[in-house]
Specification:
Blueprint: H1 8-11, H2 14-43, H3 48-52, H4 59-70, E1 87-90, E2 96-102, H5 107-122, E3 127-133, H6 142-153, H7 158-167, H8 174-183, H9 188-196, H10 201-213, E4 221-225, E5 231-235, H11 240-250
């Protein structure tokens, strides 16, 4: 027969044993709480999170990483960055960029074009001019003219072609586009094949959609952008003095 040794609690009446055990438990919990409170005071963090993370030192770091991943990096402007596929006029490394969203059939764009030419003449080292398409739906020749200019760009004549389109805006049409390609000395067979295929329709549409997302609602719609990416919008065919003031403010 296995022998049993009675403990101190077994020797007490059941009621006294219950209350003695209850008091002992309370004292033990109080001691543990005092130790935790003292450690948090000495550590300088007595928040609820400090206790919640006591068993997992890496949880705070993980939460910060997740939060950072959910927040996109800040951008100074919604205008797409300039790339080597853009049409750039002037000093490619200029500190100031003017991105113009334009329509070859827009009369206001035609008025604004000489203003930008003057900007390039007077700020030749400080400003680069980027031309992007924004054909308006109620201008039937806007997209065909843009395609014609893009086809000329394949042979290195985008800016010459664009200048002529604005100077002869009343002549826009397939016959004039072909005539202009010939007068600029382009390989007319190559140009015509490109134009007939409407090769650049998707590119033109993509530029227009990106411009709209950046806030362009009409043409010409332009942005003066400094080296840090901060942008000053220029809406409409503003005179040279207004554009110059915007440039000077960020130089």
């Amino acid at each position: 027969m296995e022998s049993q040794t009675k403990s101190f609690f077994d020797a007490l009446p059941s009621r006294q044993a219950f209350w003695l055990g209850f008091v002992t438990a309370i004292l033990a919990l109080g001691t543990l709480g005092f130790i935790l409170l003292g450690s948090c005071v000495l550590g300088g963090d007595c928040s609820v999170d400090a206790f919640a993370n006591a068993d997992n030192d890496d949880s705070g770091d993980a939460a910060e990483v997740i939060a950072a991943a959910e927040v996109p990096p800040p951008t100074a402007t919604g205008v797409p960055a300039v790339t080597e596929t853009d049409h750039i006029r002037g000093n490619a490394d200029a500190p100031i960029t003017i991105i113009e969203y334009s329509d070859f059939q827009c009369p206001y764009c035609s008025r604004f074009h000489p203003t930008m030419q003057q900007v390039m003449s007077e700020y030749s080292d400080s400003v680069r001019w980027v031309f992007r398409h924004f054909p308006l739906s109620f201008h039937p020749e806007a997209t065909p003219a843009a395609n014609a200019a893009e086809c000329a760009s394949e042979q290195g004549k985008f800016w010459e072609y664009a200048d002529a389109l604005f100077e002869n805006q009343s002549n826009l049409g397939s016959a004039y586009y072909a005539q202009l390609a010939s007068s600029l000395g382009l390989n007319t067979s190559q140009w015509q094949s490109c134009f007939d295929a409407q090769k650049y329709n998707d590119v033109i549409e993509a530029q227009a959609q990106a411009g709209g997302a950046a806030g362009v609602s009409g043409t010409p719609g332009s942005f003066v952008i400094d080296q840090d990416g901060n942008a000053i919008p220029i809406k409409g065919a503003l005179p040279f003095s207004s554009v110059a003031a915007a440039i000077d403010s960020v130089l």
